[in-house]
Amino acid sequence: MQAPLCEIQNLRIGFPAHDGTVADAVRGISLTLQRGERLGIVGESGSGKSLTGRALLGLLPPSAQWSADTLRFDGQDLLAMRPKARRRLCGTQMSMILQDPKYSLNPVMTVAQQLREAFRRHEPKLNARAMREKIVAALAAVHIRNPERVADAYPHELSGGMGQRVMIAMMVSAGPRLLIADEPTSALDVLVSMQVLAVLDEMIEKHDTGLVFISHDLPLVMSFCDRVVVMYGGRVLETCAARDLKHAEHPYTRGLLAANPPLTDPPDELPTLRRDAAWLIEPSVKES
Using one digit for the tens of pLDDT, what is the confidence trace for 171-207? Predict the structure, then answer.
C-alpha cells in the first residue's frame, strides 16, 4: 500500500492565557491524507480546523505552543526539518488558499505585483518578460477571461470570485503536492462557488494534488470531497467517507447536519445544537 502524502499523529496546539495557563486549541488529533485525495474538515468556528492546516505548513503564530508525535509530508519528517528547508516547501510543494481575498490580497498592490512577489521567491532568475508571461499564464489557467487586464488591476477592482481565482492562481501555479483550502467559497454566491470549485478540481486532477478542504458547508463537502473529518473543541470526533456523512453516528455530527435544513419543506423550528463536555475527553468514533 502506498504511503500517505501527509500524516499527523497526536498534534497538540495551545496558547498562553492571561493567568499563565495554556488554553488548548487542538487536542491530540491524528489524520492522514492520500495522494490525489480530497479530505474535508468540518466543524464550528474555533474547532481547530485552520490551525491544523497551518501546522502542516509551519505557519502557526509565534505564541503557539505545539507538539506532535508525527508530522510527515511526502516521506519527509517535518519535525526534523530545518526552518529554511521547511519554508522552501511552502508555495512549491505545499500551499494554502485563504478564505477571503478582500483580506488576503494587499489592497495597494496590483495583482501582477503580488503574483510577482510570490513567484520571485521560488524563481528569482526570471527576467521581467518571462515573469509577465508566467503571471498571465497563471491567471489564464484559472479561467480568468482577460488575464492581461486583471494582472494590472487592484484587488478592489475585482469581484469576489475573481479575487479568489487570483488567490488560487498564486497558490497552485507551481503544482503543489498538498493544497489546503481554508473556506475558499465562504464569501461567494452559489454560482461563483461552483466555478471556483471547478477550477480547484481541475488543478487537483492536473497535478495529482492532495486537498485539505476546510469548510462549514456540510452539503458542499459531501458533494466535493472523498472523506470527511468532523472536529469539535480541537478533537476529531468522527471520520467517514463523504458519501456516508448523512448517516454519521456521532450526536455532534448529527446536530451539524440538522442545522442545514432542506430548501423544500423546511422544519418550522431549527433544532438547537447540543454539546457534551465528555466529547473533549472520550475516545473518538472509529474511522469508517
Answer: 887 778 999 999 888 767 787 788 888 888 888 888 8
Asked if the model's pLDDT at residue 267 lies above 90, the reply is: no
The answer to whether residue 130 sits within a structural domain is: yes
Burial state string for 231-246 with b = 16 or more CB within 10 A and e = fewer than 16: bbbbbbbbbbebeebe
Residues 6+ apart with CB under 8 A from 6: 32, 33, 56, 72, 73, 74, 178, 210, 212
d(CA 56, CA 95): 10
Give the whole-angstrom CA distance, residue 57 versus residue 108.
26
**Quick check: 270 and 261 in contact, CB under 8 A?**
yes
Q: What is the rounded CA–CA span in Å between residue 232 and residue 196?
A: 27
Q: Which runs of E-coded beta strand occur in 81-184?
A: 94-97, 178-182
Three-state DSSP class for 68?
coil
Domain at 205, CATH number: 3.40.50.300
| pLDDT tens column, 201-216 | 888 888 889 999 999 8
Q: Which residue has the higher pLDDT, 260 or 222?
A: 222
| Number of domains into which the chain is organized | 1
Q: Per the domain annotation, does 285 fall within a domain?
A: no
Which domain range does residue 145 map to? 6-280
Using DSSP's 3-state secondary structure scheme, residue 40 falls into strand
| pLDDT score of 286 more than 60 | no
Three cell numbers at 281?
Answer: 475527553
Asked if 150 and 109 count as a contact pair (C-beta separation under 8 A), the reply is no
Task: For residue 245, give the nearest of 221, 266, 262, 264 by alpha carbon.
Answer: 221
Residue 32: all three cell numbers together: 492522514
Q: What would the pLDDT profile of 70-121 be if each residue is shown by its tens digit?
A: 999 999 999 999 988 888 888 789 999 887 777 889 999 999 999 998 888 7
